[in-house]
Amino acid sequence: MILDEREIKRLAYDWGESANRAVNKCGYNPDIDGSHEDIWTTGGTLTRLSSAETMSVVSTSTADDTGGTGAITIQIEGIDNDWVVLNESLTLNGTGALTTTGSFLRINRMFITSSGSGQTNAGTITATASSAGTVQAAIETGSGQTEKTQYAVPKGFRAVFTELQVNTNDNAGLEGLFLMNENNKGWRVKRRVFFSAGDIRISLYGEYADEKTDVKVTAKSLAGSNKLVAADWTFYLMRKHS
Hints:
Elements: H1 5-15, E1 17-32, E2 37-38, E3 55-59, E4 71-79, E5 85-91, E6 98-99, E7 106-115, E8 125-129, E9 135-139, E10 151-152, E11 157-168, E12 174-182, E13 187-195, E14 198-203, E15 208-209, E16 213-221, E17 227-240
Antiparallel strand pairs: 1-17, 2-16, 3-6, 3-8, 4-5, 4-7, 8-9, 10-16, 11-14, 11-15, 11-17, 12-13, 12-16
């Protein structure tokens, strides 16, 4: 069963909350091997930060700059050290690194907000934690936004899940996991799915995540390596009333 708008509103009423908006998270990993990895374009497993840090943001192309043909400005959406929503806009400097004003504990999404004649980013734009030195988000060349299935539910909100999709172009079998980690207590498997060429959609009915919960999708190959896997999942983000 997939939640419809009436069911979402009923849940919001029962919980004393307001259904704000539907959100889709999508991502892909072009190199899945025999161990579980996060589904995001950077590959491997995201190293989550234990405390918020400023981000060093840079492109691989000089065209991602004011007056260039690529991306000019981007928006970073995430949370701060208290899990409160933190958004910041940056004007890019091509291959010259910029440092964010705010300190991010998580980055949920980055996307371009203005561009030159190319109408998209000319290079890969990466946000790296200034102290830890780990990549937290990246916009691949020509994508215009991050493709990462990781999400952190902000303080004061609850996420009610509706659907998960995974797909691959390979005939070999793969295993996908939909996981949650509430307030850093540890990862729990909420859905396990096996799939091959084509896509599979499953209901997430009955699952929700409270504030301060990390969510992600991972995959591993059951036969061979270097498999390309994509995934997306949808949810309603509800504001909690005090």
